[in-house]
Specification:
By secondary structure, the chain is of the alpha+beta class. Helices cover 30% and strands 40% of the residues.
Amino acid sequence: MKQSLLLISLLVLIISACSSGPNHSYYPARQAGEPGYTERQLTDTQYIVSYTAPGSNISQTVSELALLRAAELTLEKQYQWFRVMDSDTEKSQRTVDALDHHVATGEVVTECGLLGCDSYRSPAYRGHHIYTQQSAGLTTSRLQISMGQGTPAAPDQVFDAAQLVKNLRPLLSKTDAQ
């Protein structure tokens, strides 16, 4: 009985350890600048697609997830391929300074001499401590894409949306397992 309880506890611990860590789950962002994907329509066939995730050493993963969202969006809009017109990756790190008020009360000092002792209170000290806290950064990949149908004029400059979804979809299980 104790062995099975120990085994179950160990199994739960291992599973929770594997599931903790950075999670770059694939989902829509609640608003721009927050983790997840966003898209903004520019014209009937042109969009800006962004993917943002916590962390600063994940540029390749974020870029691939932005490409995946671009491919999915292309298929949702009934197009076959897309071309990346422009792209950039941005890493942001926020630093927050916190101010802590420090107040020290005066202490009672007693000095004794030949004629007796004298006590007085030393002046109180007021000051501040500044603490710097660094929060986790975000990495964002932005793609400006143009979608199309049929045979592209320059096939080596476009992504086949269906093929890209097929190839990048397995990335989701890898990033969720991290």
